[in-house]
Design goal:
Helix content is 39%, strand content 14%. By secondary structure, it is an alpha/beta fold. It has an eight-stranded parallel β-sheet, with helices on both faces. Helix 3 crosses helix 9. The longest helix is centred in the first third of the chain and has 17 residues.
């Protein structure tokens, strides 16, 4: 387990990881999927089952995982399932120092580096804050191979916030990776309806409606990422401009 000082969250920092040299070598790298999801198991067993199903498909397709570093709920289920199949090197958790106290095996005054078992949950990096966590996870995705992207499994406020930030970054041209909601038992129906409502009311361009796509099975998640088409309405902005 490693500890990192705060990383810059600027758009130019993220874009520096998506330059031509990264693009030229991405085909040779394993793709990385960043999964946003809850630290609760939810009230239906379908949500934990979906996490396990997604882990199996990621393993079958040779895809790495980066996630929020939790050991409980859907987060923990996803990570430990993939580690059991692909090994610790296939998973990287990124967790802010303040949140480690909510994890399994946490002991007040103990060594934070020993709280999360990397043989069970994968390589873990402790960062100073939430912004550093999100920037580091996004960098893992953009530095990975083709077919990577961002996925939202079931979760609460934090999951939705993280999801909508990478959607906004896509719209602004900061990245061009696929973004998929894994819609388990209709959990994200309201969000998908909101997108349609925002389009019909003129707050999201119709040409940007496809930035966020839906999948209802783990296999479909990977297919949607692989076949993802960058929306025509994205802003063509230069985030690396000095």
């Amino acid at each position: 387990m490693t500890t990192e000082s705060r990383a810059s969250t600027s758009s130019s920092t993220l874009m520096s990881e998506t330059g031509s040299s990264a693009d030229m070598s991405s085909a040779k790298k394993r793709p990385t999927v960043c999964v946003f999801c809850g630290a609760s198991p939810g009230t239906s067993p379908a949500h934990m089952a979906a996490a396990r199903s997604l882990a199996h498909v990621l393993h079958d397709q040779g895809i790495n995982l980066v996630y929020g570093g939790g050991t409980v709920g859907i987060m923990g289920e996803l990570a430990k399932t993939l580690v059991s199949l692909s090994g610790p090197e296939a998973v990287r958790g990124v967790i802010p120092k303040a949140l480690v106290r909510f994890e399994r095996n946490y002991k007040e005054g103990g060594d934070l580096q020993k709280t999360i078992d990397e043989e069970v949950y994968g390589r873990t990096t402790i960062v100073e804050d939430m912004h550093s966590r999100k920037q580091m996870m996004a960098t893992e995705v953009v530095q990975g191979g083709e077919g990577g992207g961002f996925v939202a499994l079931t979760g609460g406020y934090g999951t939705l916030e993280e999801l909508m930030e990478v959607v906004t970054w896509n719209q602004l041209g900061i990245h061009g990776k696929g973004i998929v909601v894994f819609n388990v038992q209709g959990y994200w129906d309201g969000l998908m309806q909101w997108v349609r409502t925002a389009v019909s009311n003129g707050f999201i361009a119709e040409s940007n409606a496809g930035i966020l796509v839906e999948a209802k099975t783990a296999e479909d998640v990977v297919r949607q990422l692989r076949d993802y088409k960058v929306a025509e309405g994205r802003f063509k902005l230069d985030w690396g401009e000095k």
